[in-house]
Write a structure and sequence with these properties.
The structure holds two protein chains of two kinds.
Chain A lengths: L29 H6 L4 H9 L1 H10 L12 H5 L10 E6 L9 H7 L1 H15 L3 E6 L4 H16 L15 E6 L9 H8 L23 E5 H20 L8 E8 L5 E6 L4 H8 L9 E5 L8 E2 L9 H6 L8 E6 L4 H15 L5 H18 L7 H12 L7 H15 L1 H14 L2
Parallel strand pairs in A: 1-2, 1-4, 2-3, 5-9
Antiparallel strand pairs in A: 5-6, 7-8, 7-9
Chain B lengths: L15 H11 L11 H12 L4 H11 L3 H10 L11 E6 L2 H5 L2 H12 L5 E2 L5 E6 L11 E3 L2 E3 L4 H18 L1 H5 L19
Helix pairs in contact in B: 1-2, 2-3, 3-4, 6-7
Classes of the chains: A alpha/beta, B alpha+beta.
The structure holds flavin mononucleotide and iron/sulfur cluster (SF4).
């Protein structure tokens, strides 16, 4: 579809199971999806039965692709068996800076996600699913609405799907420009028509979720993986990844690289390979300075930390996160005060304001960053950043607090010389 | 639940088409959860009336049978729900990290020059609102921006200048009256559409 998202000729290092841009077909059309074997997983699943499919997803080590990497099969098992109606809610709020992967499915290959939604709903016994698409994704909303309409028409949604006796309704629900609505409980509030104020957990959505009912929240890419697992089996899915991290992963590389774009690799591929091979290395052949490994909520990495494997556990081991696999690369000419300022501004702007440490703390972080950039920094401001982050961390209702504190603390701790030289340059300039 | 506050003009009403769209939205949610249709219904209202002036929010409250306070608090929370009129073209330039690394500040400079306004402002002819926005999920295609509902990726400063000049020329060609009119907005110069940089 002439998508700008993926690189149309796969790199030799890629393993493409999900990305199909290079096929040059319009997969927003159901006929084309069916022609490539689409909805084959449904037929297979019905033969296997619900429990077997659930077991397979669990064994496949499908880690949630929304950022936290929680195993999807395990999460599905948290639903109480008490007869209340259940919902599936799909997180398509994609707002984490550095992340542009769900957009691919929503705009170019919606049926891959929708087949996953059908399978998941059937396994967990949900008869209604809401796909929460961020409001700025006008095209995605349009594509998904049409795809869903086509599925109703073809008997893949609605009552008695393909004669199975299973009923499912799927609806798009648009967001309206609030990053915090990507946090799962804020998203549920937003679907209910309320401000996106995250809920205190517990209770978790699996028990009290949308409209007070048991709800599973999963990410778009998580859904897209489900048909792959059903089709090829847990063993094959595990073989595509690293231990406890099944499957391939879409990685978006942006910033100072020669070939920014969306790539698909086996979990466990190294960060170095993603930067220097997939993305072609650093722009203008400069030196690497730092990397955000999975969206701006992750602690930044230095150039000495890029031999890490790309999976949820390996990045955790070195004190960061794989998050959304939105890799942002910065070269040695980058003004780290400017980066800090933009990161801080984002979390301040997107704080919902419920908790004092987050609401006030992100304001502080931004104010400190601003004065660093204005040449007005006070001695000890870098330490003050760290101390403010420490006071936010762990003291808030939702993980937005950590999402702000962790990356900023890492900038302050790992890139102090760069911050100092940028601050000095501003001070001399303003003298 | 409450009476319209507009006293003089005829009471606002939705078109038949908008009413049908809202009925379709309500059918997506449990019958006792009408508020769930609020955000999409507010988009319908924006399509119909341009922005969410108080009478419009009251109309939506009545149409969905939800308390006006609920409409107000939801409308206030979300940046894309417009509490003020915006220019005909809303130019939203991403200024987050990936776009910064790929030169979004240069695009913003071009926009300032071409439009004569800064982020958060609307041109006095009511044609353009400029906003600095957060990540548009287009980082691999940075720098990125949206004009109205359309995405623009990998935008160079030259392309930016051309796009804005084309829109201005288009406005002059198709709506000379509007382009020449002093100001259709209640504004003596620039209007700040919202407090936040999202605009
Ligand atoms: C501040 C914040 C923003 C988030 N934004 C998103 C998002 O845009 N998309 C997403 O899928 N998950 C996002 N998450 C994670 C969700 O809360 C949740 O973990 C995820 O949707 C679960 O799906 P998964 O298990 O399939 O990953 C966010 C979390 C936080 C704390
Ligand atoms: S941590 Fe921040 S975003 Fe999350 S609930 Fe508290 S104030 Fe809101």
């Amino acid at each position: 579809m002439g998508s700008p998202h993926a690189v149309t000729v796969p790199h030799p290092l890629e393993t493409r199971v999900l990305l199909r841009d290079h096929e040059g077909k319009d997969y927003t059309q159901l006929a084309n999806y069916l022609a490539r074997g689409g909805f084959g997983a449904w037929k297979k699943a019905v033969e296997m039965g619900r429990d077997k499919v659930h077991t397979e997803v669990r064994a496949a080590n499908l880690r949630g692709r929304g950022g936290a990497g929680f195993p999807a099969g395990v999460k599905w098992g948290f639903l109480p068996k008490d007869g209340r109606p259940r919902y599936l809610a799909i997180n398509a709020d994609e707002g984490e800076p550095g992340t542009f992967k769900d957009r691919y499915f929503l705009e170019e290959d919606p049926f891959q996600m929708l087949e996953g939604i059908l399978l998941t709903s059937w396994v967990i016994g949900a008869h209604a699913c809401y796909v929460y698409v961020r409001g700025e994704f006008w095209r995605a909303i349009d594509v998904c609405e049409r795809a869903i309409a086509e599925l109703y028409q073809a008997g893949w949604l609605g009552k008695n799907i393909q004669g199975s006796g299973f009923d499912l309704d799927v609806y798009v629900h648009p967001g309206a420009g609030a990053y915090i609505c990507g946090e799962e409980t804020a998203m549920l509030e937003s679907i209910e028509g309320k401000p996106g104020w995250p809920r205190l957990k517990p209770p978790f959505p699996a028990n009290i979720g949308l409209f007070g009912m048991p709800t599973i929240v999963n990410n778009v890419e998580t859904m897209a993986c489900v048909p792959v697992i059903v089709n090829d089996g847990a063993d094959a899915f595990n073989a595509l990844g690293s231990p406890k991290n099944g499957g391939t992963k879409l990685v978006g590389v942006s910033g100072h690289v020669k070939r920014p774009g969306l790539y698909e690799v086996k979990m466990g591929t190294t960060m170095r390979a993603a930067i220097y091979e997939l993305a072609g290395g650093i722009l203008d052949d400069r030196e690497l300075l730092c990397v955000i490994p999975g969206g701006s909520s992750c602690p930044f990495l230095t150039k000495d930390e890029i031999d890490v494997a790309l999976d949820f556990d390996a990045l955790k081991t070195i004190g960061s996160m794989f998050g959304t696999a939105g890799i942002v690369v910065m070269h040695d000419g980058t003004n780290m005060v400017e980066v800090l300022t933009r990161v801080a501004h984002f979390y301040k702007h997107e704080s919902c304001g419920q908790c004092t440490p987050c609401r006030q703390g992100t304001g502080w972080l931004y104010a400190i960053a601003k004065r660093m950039g204005a040449g007005l920094a006070a001695a000890g401001d870098i330490d003050l950043l760290v101390s403010a982050c420490n006071q936010i961390d762990g003291n808030t209702i939702c993980a937005h607090g950590e999402a702000a504190a962790w990356p900023i603390r890492s900038i302050a701790q790992k890139f102090r010389p760069q911050l100092e030289s940028a601050m000095r340059a501003r001070m001399t300039a303003s003298m | 639940m409450s009476e319209p506050s507009a006293t003089s003009a005829a009471p606002l009403a939705f078109s038949a088409d908008a009413k049908a769209r809202i009925a379709g939205l309500l059918a997506r949610y449990p019958q006792d959860r009408k508020q769930a249709a609020l955000i999409p219904a507010l988009y319908v209202a924006q399509d119909e009336f341009g922005w969410l002036k108080p009478e419009v929010m009251e109309l939506v409250a009545r149409e969905l049978d939800v308390p006006l306070t609920a409409v107000l608090s939801t409308a206030m929370f979300y940046t894309m729900l417009k509490k003020q009129p915006l220019g005909r073209w809303h130019v939203q330039v991403c200024t987050n990290v990936s776009c910064y690394l790929r030169g979004c500040d240069g695009l913003m400079d071009v926009a300032r020059q071409e439009l004569g306004i800064g982020p958060g402002e609307t041109t006095s002819d009511g044609l353009f609102t400029l906003s600095a926005v957060e990540c548009l999920a287009a980082c691999g295609m940075a720098p990125a921006l949206q004009i109205g509902k359309k995405d623009h990726f990998n935008v160079s400063t030259d392309q930016m200048r051309q796009m804005l000049q084309d829109l201005k020329a288009d406005a002059r060609a198709h709506a000379p009256a509007l382009a020449a009119a002093p100001t259709p907005l209640p504004s003596s110069g620039h209007t700040a559409p919202t407090a936040g940089p999202h605009g």
